[in-house]
Amino acid sequence: MDNPSGTSSRLLSLDAMRGFTIAAMIMVNFPGSEEHVFPTLHHTKWNGLTFTDLIAPVFLYIVGVSIALAYSKKVGLPGSKADLYKKIVIRSVKIFAVGMFLNMLPNFHFSDLRYTGTLHRIAIVFLVCAFLFLNTNWKQQAYLGITILVLYWLALTLIPTPGEGQVILEPGRNIAAWIDQQFLPGKMWQGNWDPEGILSTFPSIVTGITGMLAGKLMISKFSPNEKSNYLMAAGLFSAAAGYFWGLAFPVNENLWTSSFVLVTSGFASMLLGALYFLIDILGKTKGIAPGVIFGANAITAYVLADIFALVFYLLPIGGQTINQHAVASMSEAGLDPRLASMLYAWFFVALNFIPAYVLYKRKIFIKL
């Protein structure tokens, strides 16, 4: 399996992890039927953790790792950082703008526009983490991350929600939701609260920081086996710490709680450590091609999925959309509707793989 860049400096494990994460994101975003989905392929309604809840933080973790790998050689270069800062800002703005474009689909109603979302959060985390990486060392990044997680925990568990008179961690009634209600423009995803709101963006940046710390380890002078072992050990420790913190501050993706950051970053570290050992150390590349291909144009694949959905999920044909026809047909044939819904989601992922494959074969790598 060739590296997308054609160089040996890239980590195939990271490329594959990025691509399979995007494929998983597309799968859970576009089930065949929203009414028939296996529980773990849904986001938790509030506290808890499902497979779906892991996907976004794993991708932000990968963003952090990629920052460390991409900018480590540029930190010590002579000359002004102004050009580098400019490129970072432009890239962040482009990702954010594409997120706004997707939010406007299909009707482009500016009066009902949401200013937050997955790509918006990726853009913000990339911007902040890239600037942090260029201006701080790994110890300062770690201290900052810990400080943010502790302050966020204290804010949500000690500051009463105005109008409620007490500390509440329920949907739409916590201090994070109140801040969004006061200051977040546009439509909120859940009416009076948004999972990608203002306050929860701070701990999501820490998810990116944990990725940068992992990236720093990957470019260190430790041996490959030591890097893999340290990643997996750190991941296990982080996940365990997050679990125990979660007893006091529940694991919650909607609030992106501090315990959620530690648990998900721990999982991401263990996954990267395992993939690095298998793929980059042992050279076991069988079966990783789809992940590497998706990962080479990850955000492009994510955007194309939203565009393809206009046809495969919204266009009515004979009174039903294509996904409704497909799920109904499989259910009538005797399949569990949830299985039919998941199979259609896999079909949709495979459909999006086609343009990703074409771009990869033509060595076209679109960087927003």
UniProtKB/TrEMBL annotation:
<dbReference type="Pfam" id="PF07786">
    <property type="entry name" value="HGSNAT_cat"/>
</dbReference>
<feature type="transmembrane region" description="Helical">
    <location>
        <begin position="339"/>
        <end position="360"/>
    </location>
</feature>
<feature type="transmembrane region" description="Helical">
    <location>
        <begin position="118"/>
        <end position="135"/>
    </location>
</feature>
<keyword id="KW-1133">Transmembrane helix</keyword>
<feature type="transmembrane region" description="Helical">
    <location>
        <begin position="50"/>
        <end position="72"/>
    </location>
</feature>
<protein>
    <submittedName>
        <fullName>Heparan-alpha-glucosaminide N-acetyltransferase domain-containing protein</fullName>
    </submittedName>
</protein>
<keyword id="KW-0812">Transmembrane</keyword>
<keyword id="KW-0472">Membrane</keyword>
<feature type="transmembrane region" description="Helical">
    <location>
        <begin position="230"/>
        <end position="249"/>
    </location>
</feature>
<feature type="transmembrane region" description="Helical">
    <location>
        <begin position="142"/>
        <end position="159"/>
    </location>
</feature>
<feature type="transmembrane region" description="Helical">
    <location>
        <begin position="255"/>
        <end position="279"/>
    </location>
</feature>
<dbReference type="InterPro" id="IPR012429">
    <property type="entry name" value="HGSNAT_cat"/>
</dbReference>
<feature type="transmembrane region" description="Helical">
    <location>
        <begin position="198"/>
        <end position="218"/>
    </location>
</feature>
<feature type="transmembrane region" description="Helical">
    <location>
        <begin position="84"/>
        <end position="106"/>
    </location>
</feature>
<feature type="transmembrane region" description="Helical">
    <location>
        <begin position="291"/>
        <end position="315"/>
    </location>
</feature>
<feature type="domain" description="Heparan-alpha-glucosaminide N-acetyltransferase catalytic">
    <location>
        <begin position="10"/>
        <end position="221"/>
    </location>
</feature>
